[in-house]
């Protein structure tokens, strides 16, 4: 490991046993660890106890430290001769802003290396026994951000439907808008969807329903972040609890 270098390290979806060997080695030796709020406490516990920890945790729609500030921290600490680990939930290059941080380091002539992590989509889906591809159900997968500027202006047509799987990050708060958007783009209201909440962590839940019920189900079940939404027939291959079926049963009993 080089002094004066930045390592963008994927911490995976939560379970510390899903760390790569290289990630575990780096966090145990880092001088400075700049970490997100999504990094599980069990992963933080594996870090070098003598390291200096800098939290740049994000709250809903607000960064405690703006991205430009994070970039400045990485560059400053590396220039001071430290082994700097930028520790991120999931994978640095999947909605992790790793690309922006790598660019900032290169522009400042700071050595930078990316250590990939198990993404939330892969880790959470595996735990729920939900195959993102399946010869009988899907031969294509798309990843989108459900909470970003200009959501309604984005063209998602063709990303969900027969033979395709759509994985939506950061979509809990905008689930109703997402439902309306997909249905307007031609996706069947009866398309199966799953919500994977706190995947690989304590209290993880995997819940499935139909697209038309997505927003209501999230409210009924009090789903919180972190969570991802998966749309497609592969959902039916999973072990996710069928909340629409359970709701129908409850309604029958009440009648």
TrEMBL record:
Question: What Pfam families does the record tag this protein with?
Answer: TP_methylase (PF00590)
Pathway(s) this gene product operates in, as recorded in its UniProt entry = Porphyrin-containing compound metabolism; siroheme biosynthesis; precorrin-2 from uroporphyrinogen III: step 1/1
PANTHER family per the UniProt record, alphabetical: S-ADENOSYL-L-METHIONINE-DEPENDENT UROPORPHYRINOGEN III METHYLTRANSFERASE, CHLOROPLASTIC, SIROHEME SYNTHASE-RELATED
Q: Which GO terms describe its molecular function?
A: uroporphyrin-III C-methyltransferase activity
Query: According to the lineage, what is the superkingdom?
Result: Bacteria
Report keywords, A-Z.
Methyltransferase, Porphyrin biosynthesis, S-adenosyl-L-methionine, Transferase
Q: Coiled coil where?
A: none
Residues in domain Tetrapyrrole methylase? 5-214
Q: Which InterPro entries match?
A: 4pyrrol_Mease (IPR000878), 4pyrrol_Methylase_sf (IPR035996), 4pyrrole_Mease_sub1 (IPR014777), 4pyrrole_Mease_sub2 (IPR014776), CobA/CysG_C (IPR006366), Siro_Cobalamin_biosynth (IPR050161), Uropor_MeTrfase_CS (IPR003043)
The similarity comment for this entry is: Belongs to the precorrin methyltransferase family.
What are the EC numbers?
A: 2.1.1.107
- Gene name of the record: cobA
Q: What class of enzyme is it?
A: transferase
What protein name does the entry list?
A: uroporphyrinogen-III C-methyltransferase
Tell me which Gene Ontology terms the entry assigns under biological process: methylation
Source species of the chain: Sphingorhabdus arenilitoris
């Amino acid at each position: 490991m080089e002094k004066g270098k930045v390592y963008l390290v994927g911490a995976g979806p939560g379970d510390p046993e899903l760390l790569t060997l290289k990630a575990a080695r780096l966090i145990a030796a880092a001088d400075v660890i700049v970490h997100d709020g999504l990094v599980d406490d069990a992963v933080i516990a594996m870090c070098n106890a003598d390291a200096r920890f800098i939290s740049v945790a994000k709250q809903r729609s607000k960064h405690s430290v703006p991205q430009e500030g994070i970039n400045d921290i990485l560059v400053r600490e590396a220039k001071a001769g430290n082994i700097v680990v930028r520790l991120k939930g999931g994978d640095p290059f999947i909605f992790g802003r790793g690309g922006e941080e790598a660019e900032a380091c290169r522009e400042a002539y700071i050595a930078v290396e990316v250590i990939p992590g198990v993404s939330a989509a892969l880790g959470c889906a595996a735990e729920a026994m939900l195959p993102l591809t399946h010869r009988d159900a899907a031969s294509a997968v798309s990843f989108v951000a459900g909470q970003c500027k200009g959501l309604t202006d984005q063209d998602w047509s063709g990303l969900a439907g027969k033979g395709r799987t759509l994985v939506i990050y950061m979509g809990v708060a905008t689930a109703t808008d997402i439902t309306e958007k997909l249905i307007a783009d031609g996706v069947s209201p009866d398309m199966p969807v799953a919500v994977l909440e706190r995947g690989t962590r304590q209290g993880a839940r995997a819940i499935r329903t139909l697209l038309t019920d997505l927003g209501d189900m999230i409210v009924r079940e009090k789903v919180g972040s972190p969570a991802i939404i998966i749309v497609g027939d592969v959902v039916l291959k999973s072990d996710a609890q069928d909340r629409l079926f359970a709701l129908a049963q409850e309604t029958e009993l009440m009648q």
